[in-house]
Amino acid sequence: MGPAPAPAPWAWPAPPATGAPPSAQAFPPPAAAWAPRPAPPVPPRPAPAGNGLVSLNVVGMLFVVTAAVLAGIAVLLGTTGAHDGAAVLYILSAILFLTAGVFFHLGRPRPEAAAARPR
Questions:
Q1: Are 93 and 74 in contact (CB under 8 A)?
Q2: Is the pTM of this model over 0.90?
């Protein structure tokens, strides 16, 4: 057994026959690739389901219910002699009633806003 034959030397591949590099043949020119395309048409927006005033009134009603429950608990605390706790709950319920009034005021229907809204 003799020594193993030496491998054949590596050679570069032959250039393409057309003379242009293969990457230039595979891709379009940059001007065609980055040309501006027309924007797709924008569909019309659907009409809103509500004007948001109902949700403000619902939040105001939740504040009223919470304040009424706290006022009832304050009455029960006042009858048992825990006047400090009753006073704190009365103040808290008054603040909640005022907050409910703010939400009811924000949720009132405004005819000038309805007239200015596009139909």
A1: yes
A2: no
